[in-house]
């Protein structure tokens, strides 16, 4: 247990592709990557920005239920990310693409 409490990190994998989830009380950081490619670890928000759907994202969601973010992430995965995770080359190309500049305050 760290200073912020109990935390867990887990991954879902298909071949060299993975989705890494960080949980501390509720789902927080979500990252995508490819084995053997050190530059290819990209946060969910940046993936959605690269496919130009960031404004349509359901994740992150806010509320009292810790499962709210899980449902929101599932929605984004089904609508925007599934095709990338099913094609190693599409994912590799996307992860190598720089994220567009943002004007907001969130990281």
Word description of this protein:
This protein is of the alpha+beta class and 107 residues long. The chain has one domain. It has three helices and four strands; from the N terminus they run E-E-E-E-H-H-H. Strands 1-2-3-4 form a four-stranded antiparallel beta sheet. A hairpin with a 6-residue loop joins strand 3 and strand 4. The longest helix is centred in the last third of the chain and has 18 residues. The radius of gyration is 14 Å and the shape is globular. The mean pLDDT is 87.
Number of helices: 3
Outline the low-pLDDT stretches: none
What fraction strand?
15-25%
Can you write the helix and strand succession as a string?
Answer: EEEEHHH
Number of strands: 4
Topology:
Elements: E1 8-14, E2 17-23, E3 27-34, E4 41-43, H1 44-50, H2 68-85, H3 88-96
Antiparallel strand pairs: 1-2, 2-3, 3-4
